[in-house]
Amino acid sequence: MLAGRSMRRNMLAAGLVLSLMVFVPPLVKLKSFHKDIIEAISGGLGRQVSFHEVRLRVFPRPGFRLEGFVVQDDPAFSSEPMLRADEVSANLRLSSLWRWRPEISSLVLKSPPGKQPWSFNIVRRQDGRWNVQSLLARASQTSTVSTNKNFHRAWFWRAGSQTQPRFPYLEGEGGRINFKAGREKKAYALSEADFSWWMASDSEWNLRLHARPVRTDTNMSDTGVIEATGTAGRSLRLDETPLRLRARFHGAQLGQLTRLVYGRDRGWRGSINVVMDVIGTPKDLKLSASGAIDDFRRYDIITPDAQRLAATCTARYQWQHQELSHIDCHLGDGALTLRGSIANLPGPRQYSLTLVAQGASMAALAHLARHVKFGLPSDLSAAGVLDAEFAYQRGPREPTAAGWAGEGSIRDLVLRSKVFGRELELGSIKFGIAQQQATAQPSRRSNRGSMYPAPFGGDSPTEPRLALAPFSVPLGEAEPALIQASLSATDYTVGMEGDAELQRLFRVARGLGIHAPNMGASGSIRAKLQIAGSWTGFAPPVSTGSLQLRNVTVHLAGVRGPAHVRSAVAVLLPEKVRIEHLVAVFTASHTAVDGSLALSRGCDSPQPCPLQFDLHSSYISLDELDSLLNPRFREVPWYRALAGDAGGSLATLAAQGRLRADHVTLRGLELQRLVAQAELRDRQLRLSDLRAEMLGGKMRAQWNGDFTGDMPVYNGSGTLEGVSLPQVAALTGNLWATGTAGAKFKLEIAGWSAAELAQSARGVLDFEWQNGVLPHLELNGSGAPVRLKRFVGRALLLGRRLEFQQSRIETADGIYSVSGTASLNRLELSLVDRNSHMYAVSGTLEEPHVIVLSSSETQAALGK
Predict the structure, then answer these.
(1) DSSP strand pairing (169-181 vs 119-124)
(2) Helix ranges (DSSP H) in 263-324
(3) What are phi and psi of 456, to 5 degrees?
(4) What is the pLDDT of residues 56-106, one digit of tens each?
(5) Is 278 left (phi over 0), alpha (psi -120 to 50) or beta?
(6) CA-CA to 766 of 20 to 30 Å: which in 122, 323, 795, 840?
(7) How far is residue 141's CA from residue 233's CA, in Å, rounded to a whole number?
């Protein structure tokens, strides 16, 4: 019983002590220990340390919780703290407690919820030194006990064996690692960083890092993960410290990686994986790396087959000389190699590099091209072999472009695709670095002559350009065309000169990813073209130059029969295409045109690019035009092709310009020397400043046609001067009038057929007819025809008839007021003289019938 009571007392006491150890330490503030703790941590890190508050912690290990923890940087690197953390767990080394000399065994950086994550600044000075070098040197030189030694050995470690503070175990969770170049903080950082730095044995330190690269000036995702593990030995000199490090970068998408590096998505896609190993000492490090981009492609290209880019590299790095030497990289299947060295990495750098391609397959390059060049056919393939060698030698003060030299060739090159039709045999192509122009800093190397011409259009290039020696391309003519090209890291230019069969040229252009019109055309051309573009931004290439067309046959949608272009010159400008000296004839009619056209290029609108024209024809028959432009709707006029319901290609045309015709016929009506400004847009036709000679006189008018509805509507206004009435009468087949006339008119008509147009006609005609004769009309029973001095007035057009208002006829016998209606088939006119005699005219123009009424009868008739 006594034993039971004693056990209960012991358990109660133990519980009380345990409770005090758990709940009391967080309430205890250890301001008096600030100095000792700061000295312990500062002595271990070799940096000035400060914090706002410290609290005692017993479990799970004796130590402290530090708040507002700051580690200052070396002033020679930065005035900003090297490390900043809102909360740090500092664990005590048990052996230091036994000696009453407290030392920190580990520091764990925390990122509490709702607070800023801890941050660590890595700074690089202009001389190439880093602020972490002294920290690494201290770690490699400090004697300590490994963290995996057993507790009892650490506890009974003799106090006399310890001569200086020992480097603590460092660990961080969920923080940020920033990078600075001098005083400038870079946009690059490592976020969500977890790291550990600890002593694995008496002579070996271990490192572990897991972080995600980000940019601090933008939100990003899928930038991948960096994982690193490594070991470092102990040495009295940092450059002799044995190192073994493996770093892996994986899970990154190429588009997001380009945003990380350049601040914007450069438009490439793919998944990246890179592994690098570092072995040796800083005095002589051996580097080896392998990496790959899987499913590499441009953002707007989707292909059924995947492209994989892979490379392996080895090199040696010497810390003392800041030199990367013995570079040996193999790309793809090893046919491409890069070797050389880069000295003085902090800058200005010195380069000595050699790029060699030996037996590289053009099939592999064609496969790559389908993933990087938009518009290439999916079945594009190539045969041939590439051999080349380029060297880059540049000193610290030489211009970038001056250091390149070398040349190469492609043997037995053949391109195949269904788009080409038959395969494109190009044979052998030689290329090399284009001869550079003189620069402000001349190169030490001699400027020897080169078979490769200088870049197109450049007088003082600032970057190296690869020039292709002129080579021939068979384009369906007896003599092949000549091609010349020049490209750099930022842009490219391709020149072509020679004869080509038009369809073959279009096929080759489309097979190489260059836009070509998809039109039915055949014939020969003489081309002098230059195609230029930029690699950045994926802007489409721009072709400029000229095409001389000779006997080209063109099939136009909505036109019956082809157009035969006897000659023309197409001038390609950056903003538009001009077709000059055009001479063409439509084979299904007698219609021939000459003149010029201009078409805008690169329209962003979904509407068609506007067409400008200045066209002339010696003869136009509107009946033939009807048959030519409207082969499926011969019962309605040609302009039905402008209406959307007819499905004509002209319905979507947007054009404006000048029309000229020497002679125009419309069912017996002839017009000479017609000139008009025409505009067609959104199925509305406008003819302004229309001038022509017709019926012995002149016409000047404005005409509009609206084809947006179910039936076309026309309205016009204008003037007629000096019209010959005999010519007007001849249109009816009977000479019923002589003299000349003029008029002002406004007219509106609607319909497809002539009957519909005539029936719907509405208008006003203010006319004046002078010195005329009505040979079939006689008044007063004299037997003499009516001779007009002047017939003036207004007539309303109502369908097929004219209704006269406020009109009068002046003759030698007197003046007659005129009223009533007239048409080709029927007259219902009344002529009243000053004596109130009425002459009622009926019948037709050819056989008019006149009844004379007395004044009383006239009054009675008018009264009715």
Answers:
(1) parallel
(2) none
(3) -60, 125
(4) 776 666 777 888 888 888 888 888 888 888 888 877 765 555 555 556 677
(5) beta
(6) 840
(7) 9
